[in-house]
Fold this protein.
Amino acid sequence: MQTVASRAGDEQGRATAPSQPYDPAYDPLKSATPGQGRDYAPTYWIGTAGEPPADDGPVTADMDVDVVIIGAGFTGLTAAIFLAQEYGIKATVLEANRTSWGCSTRNGGQAQCASGRLKRSQWIERYGLDTALKLHRECLDGMETFKALIKDIDCEPQPGGHLYVAHRDKVMPTLEKEAKLLRETFDYDAQILDADTVKRYWVGDQDAAGAMHEPEGIGIHAGKLAFGYLKKARALGVKVHPSSPVQGWETRDGIHHLRTPGGVVKARSVGIATGGYTSQSLHPELKNRLLPILSNSIVTRPLTPSEIDACNLHTRQVITDTRVLRHYYRLLPDNRLQIGSRSAITGRDAPQQKYEDVLVSNMTRKFPALKGVALDYSWWGWVDVSHDMMPRIHQPDPKESIFYALGYGGNGVMYSAQAGRRLAQWIAGDGKQLDLPIFTSKLPFPNLRETVESQAFAPFRRIGQRFLYRWYYLKDEVL
C-alpha cells in the first residue's frame, strides 16, 4: 500500500520537512496538542496531489498581529481568504503540523448540501419551519460559496448531485417522505428512484433498496483543494505558519498571547478552526464541547473497464447510504473506488487491522465483483461532531474577541467554505447580523445543559459511544 514520502523544502517559504512522523494513534481527547510538524496521513489525496505549495515556515520569533486563525485546513484557510477579500484583513494562520494536515486531507471529498448531521425534517422538529427554511437557504448559499471558491482551483470536481441509497427496504418509506418534504416545502428537487433503476442505471450497490437523488453535490480531490486554498490565501497576503502549535494561551487586557514553540504570537482577535483535531486544552471554551469520531477510508487500485461494468458504476456522483453508521463512496476520476465509514472509538485502537477488514467486507458486500481487489490507500481521521449534531460559528463570550467554526459532523467539505466566510464575518465585526441558531449559540455539552454536572459527565462519553455503536449496528443491519 502506498504511503506519503516526506517532502523537504528550501528557505524561501517552501513547505518545510516534517520534524516528526505521522502518528496513527493520535487522539484529540488524550493528547495535549496535535503534535508539531507531523507528516501527513498516507491518504489518497496527499499521495496524488503533487508537491505541497509554499508556506511561510514555522513561527521563529515573537509576533504582533491583528488576527490569528488557529488551524490551516479548509475552514481556517477560507476564513483567511474571505477576511482578505472582503474586509482587507490579512490574517496569520497557525498550524500545528503540515498545512491541512487534519480533517481536510482525510475526508471522502464529498461536498453535499448539508450542515451538520440532521435532516430537514429534523430541523423542523427542533427549530420550527421558518428557521428550517432559513437553514436550507444557508446551505444553498454555502454551495454557491463553495462553487465560486473552487472555480479556479484544479480539484477534479465531479458535479451532478448526491445519491442517497436506501440500504434496506424498510428505509424507503422514510426516504420517500423526506423527498416529498424537500420538494414541496423546501422547493428542492429531490427524486425517488426504485431499486431496479438504481442498480441498472446508477450504481450496482447490492444493498440498494432504492435511493433519493438530490440535485446538489460535488465530489472533489481534497488534497488539491487544500493546496489550492493555500495558494489562494497566500496570494492575498495571508501568512501561513506550519509546525506552530498553540501550546499556551493567555488573554491580558484584551490581547491574546498564543505561545508556540518558536515564539509568542500576540493577536487582537482569534478564530478557531481546528475541527476534529481540537485539543481539550486549547481553550476553556472548547473543553468537552465536541465528540471527535473516527472515520476510515480506503481507495482501490484503478479498476478495469470490465470491473466497472460488473459493478454497474454508471455515475461518478457522490454517494452515501442510509445507515446511521453510514458509508460514503464514489468512483474517482482515475477509476479507483473510494469508500469510507465509521471506525474505532479511540486513537489507540485505530491502527488495528480489523477496522480496515470490516470496511473491505462492506465494500465487497456492496460490490461482489471487487472481492480480492488490491487497495492502494488506507487511512483514518477524526471528525468533529457536536453533541446536538449541528455546527456552530459563534463568538462564545461577547466580551472576548474569540470566535470558532466547529462541529460539522462529517459534512464539512462544502460547509467549511461557508463557515469560513461566516467566521470572517464574526472576526470583522459583522457577526451580529447572523441570526440562525448555529450562529447565536455555543457548542453544547453532552447533555445540552451548561452545568458542572454535564462537564463532569463528558469524559465518559466514549462509554456511551460504544453502546451507541452497538445499537446503531443492530438498527442498521438486524432490527
Remarks:
- The chain is about 30% helix and 20% strand.
- The chain has a mean pLDDT of 93.
